[in-house]
Every structure is written in C-alpha cells, then in structure tokens.
Design brief:
homodimer; alpha/beta; 5-stranded parallel sheet; 4-stranded antiparallel sheet; 8 helices; 13 strands; DNA-binding
Chain lengths: 270, 270
DNA sequence: CGGCCTGTGAAAATCCTGTGAACGCAGGCA
DNA sequence: TGCCTGCGTTCACAGGATTTTCACAGGCCG
C-alpha cells in the first residue's frame, strides 16, 4: 500500500563503521533510513512502514533467533536481511528457514548489501498499483482515495480511516473472496493474531454505513469459513438461481455467476 | 490452502559434484528437479512452470549477463539464483541489480543453497497472490479458486470450504487415484486418524451437489480399498468396455484406459 | 459365506459470524 | 491539567452453519 517508490530501511546494528558508510550511500540513493543499535519491538516496526530491515542479530544475544522469528511472522511483507560476522551453514540455514530473506556475511561491501536489499524488496513493489489514487465506482458508491472517503451521490459515508481502507481494498478486489488473514495483512499491515475479530467488526461498521446511505444495494457478502467478497448487487435478487425464469439480468455485472454460500444479510434491527 | 506446495527447480550447471549432491537432497525434500548443463532458452523455461532457477552463468560465457537479464525480465515470477565461483563485488551487484534474487558463492553447502532457494520462492509466492487462483474446468464444471466455489454455467454448487478444497484437490489431480490418507493430509492439513470416515462423508456431499447440478456427468469414482479418483465422464457410457462398438470417444480424456476394480456409482436413492 | 469396505442418514459436537457493549487511548478543547 | 469525543480493540453471547461421529445397510472380494 505504499505508493512511494523510495525504500524505507531500518538498520539494527552497532558496527558504526559499516553503518556509517552504508547510511551515506543509502541516503545518496534516496533511501529513508532509520538506525538503532538495539532491538526494536516488532510492534514498533509496524508503525515505521518499512520496506526492509537489516539486522545483525549478534547484538540481540540470546534473543536473536526469537526476534527474527517474530519479525518474520508478524511482518511477512517486510524484507528481512541479516548482516553479521562469521556464521555456520547451520545458522544461516536456520535463519533462512525462519523467514530471513537474505543472509550477508561481514565484512561486506555496502554496495552489495544495498543491492541485496533491493533484490529482496524488488518484487514486492512490482505490480504495485498506480491505481492508488484512482476512484472506484461500485453500485451507487463512489470510492475516492484522494479524499479517503466514499460517496453516494454527494453525501459522504463518513468513514474512518480503517473503514475506508477496508472498503477500498475490498472494492479493488471486487468479485474475489478475500480471506480474513489476507484482509488483515493488507489493511493493518501485519499478520493477524489468531482469534482476532477486528475484520468482522469493521465489516459490520461498513455494512451499517453502506445500508444507511445505499439501502437498495448489497455490497459485502460473507463466505462462511473463508472471508468476505465485495460485489455490488441491487437488492431483491435473493436466490435468483432458484427462479431463473423470473429474473432477467437486472444489473448483474457480466461474467458474475450468481453467488452462493453467501449469507444474505437480512438487516434485522434498524 | 495447500501448505506445502512442491518446489519446481531447474539447475543450469555443469559442476557435476555439486549438482549431484544438490539433486539428491532436493529430491529427498520432494522438489521437482530439472537439470541441464547448457543454457535453456527463456521461452522453454516458461513451459516448465518453474518456481526457481539455479544457474552458474560461467558456462554461458559471454552471454551470461544477457541471459540473466532476459530470464529476469521475461519471467518476473521466477526465483532466479546464481551459484558460481569467485566473483567481484561489482559482478554481484550487477547481477542483483539485473534481477537476480540471490547470488551464492561456490563452494557452498547444498543445504544452504536450498534454504536460499526456498527463501527466494517464499518471497516470490507472497508477492503474486493469484498463483493459486487459476480456474479449473472439468466436464460441465468450472472450479474457481478466487471464489472458493464451483459453477455449472452460472449457478454455484454452494460448496462449503472443506467441500471446495476437496473438490479442488481432486480436480487438480484429475485422473489420479488418491488414497484417503493422502486426501486427508492435503485437505485437512494433518494426518488422518485411523478409522476416520470424514473423507467418505465429504465425497458423498460432493457427489450429491454434483449430481444435483450436473446430473449427466460422473465426476468422482470410487476405487475399492484405495480411495477416489476424479475424472469427468459423460453419463451413458457405463460399461462402455462391454459394448465397444456403441461408444466412440465422446469426451473421455486420452490415456485413460477403463479402470478395473472401479465401482461405478449408481445413485440409488433420490 | 464371512470379513472388510463403502454409502447413507441423522444426531452430536464444534466452529463461525453477527452483534452489542465495554475498555483504553489519543487528540481537541476549555 | 482535566474533561469530552471519536476511534480501534476486545469480550461475551446467541443463533446458525459446518464438521464429526455413529450405527446400520449393502456391496466387494476372496
């Protein structure tokens, strides 16, 4: 979700000689850098919106492996590169299996370190949408990334930031069933904890606001045991597959088979 | 989804010692391997559906850089790993900038090479999300991973998640007889307890839904004492082997001799 | 013919989602 | 500073949907 092209890198190392040189080159290349010589809690890494993390686990002592493990599993989209001194094959293999993307041995040329960091972050960026700022239309909805807001006609749905990002993601993947974990990963930016219900709660809030402003459309469909799918449908076509003769292509977008296994919301309470 | 997907790796190298050892380990790990000691045209690589390519550009001589460049740009989803002898920082940087994902220096431990290849493909798989989303067609069926659902024409079979995953697995292994244990392992994700009948029950549910939506085809075949096989067959060819003159290659996939020991289902009750 | 193995229907157990509400946090404001 | 408000997170519960388990019947094989 980072529209920016620049690489955001954090370095956890206390080898001042190496870090200094690397920092100079990185800044020359236009990278945004964050240095520390101590462990940064994975939680805080989330807030930094990094593309990559370069770390020498030596200075984390015993906790090194555990730290790498946590970072790798909490931030699967982060490029994780270890740069450290002598190591055994077994150590490198362990690290790589844990989720480390590249393991560089010191002493190393900063240029190579940078090239490897680039290689690690490269693909993630590829195919990144330039659609970031293009509005999306769906049913009666108009989703406007430039305003972080969705509109029905001229009136805004009054979405909070998270609500908007969730809606935007769903709308961009219109028609696809997205699993909760995927949604969480892409909206929140890190891995979903087991049992977290945040996605459900935000879906409910979205549905309330959608229902309030565009009551004659159904936008978000639940897929039991999987996740959610965004697909604007005019209301009143419930179970069209049971009476195929009665309904004649009202508005259903082309190549959109009638959804099933969908919990058609019934909006009980007002 | 499927947790363990097999890695398809091609090796372009003529260092027989290294390659032999690597191949042994890779096969032990269940990887699918393809070796050559000459350059493979990028065009052919496409057809091989590889996850990763390990190459020693040394044996490509002058063309090495050009080759890496073409492979990297033509196959952006392929993990590209160079494994070669001595090299300068400049060479490594050049390669990495070109699109190489990792650059390993020989001599290297095959275990590390494998771990690095894994790391590269892991990162790659995360990047492109729709790798697993290719629809499968079978008989009148259309199996759509993006919807977690199967369709006959426009109407969905209304499969639950487990049902869908079972069907998807069977369909991907079309024509193969899969043992219950295998099925359970791959759909449920862990070993089947002795005496568990879940697979049978889900096969029944699937058959019911298939029969309901596509009554003129037989999809799932029972192999007594073994397991099940998915193979769409138009109805009415029951016992075609008994009256070979009557039936003429309606739709039966090639190279599928009528299996003996097959229980042709007869759908007793309605 | 007897011992498995599979098909089947239904009950029981489990899991999943919708929902309302409480909680904590941070920023705005007096 | 202290209060108020908006927002995101977490919890617990209820109603369903789904999965598992069971018992039995019928088929397959030697």
């Amino acid at each position: 979700m980072n529209p920016q092209q620049t690489t955001r890198l954090a370095v956890i190392d206390n080898d001042s000689g190496f870090v200094t040189v690397l920092a100079k080159r990185a800044e020359a290349a236009g990278w945004q850098l964050h240095q520390t010589s101590g462990g940064v809690p994975p939680r805080d890494l989330v807030a930094m919106k990094l593309n990559a993390l370069l770390v020498d686990p030596t200075l984390l002592g015993e906790e090194g492996w555990d730290y790498l493990d946590r970072v790798a599993s909490l931030l699967p989209d982060l490029g994780l590169v270890v740069c450290t001194g002598r190591s055994t094959v077994a150590q490198r293999v362990r690290g790589l299996r844990l989720g480390v993307d590249d393991w560089i041995t010191k002493p190393c040329h900063p240029e190579e370190a940078m090239a490897r960091i680039e290689a690690v972050t490269r693909r993630r960026r590829r195919g990144n949408r330039e659609s970031e700022a293009t509005p999306v239309a769906a049913g009666e909805l108009q989703i406007r990334p430039d305003r972080f807001q969705a509109f029905v006609g001229d009136v805004a749905l009054d979405l909070t930031r998270r609500e908007f990002e969730l809606l935007h993601l769903l709308a961009e993947e219109r028609g696809q069933v997205l699993e909760r974990e995927t949604i969480y990963q892409r909206v929140w930016g890190y891995a979903m904890a087991h049992g977290d219900r945040s996605v459900d709660v935000f879906i409910r809030k979205l549905r309330q606001k959608l229902e309030k402003h565009s009551p004659s459309w159904a936008y978000i469909h639940t897929h039991f045991g999987i996740g959610y799918r965004f697909d604007p449908e005019p209301a009143g076509i419930v179970k069209e597959e049971l009476r195929p003769a009665a309904v004649e292509e009202i508005q259903t977008p082309p190549a959109e088979p009638a959804p099933s296994q969908v919990v058609h919301k019934s909006f009980t309470a007002g």
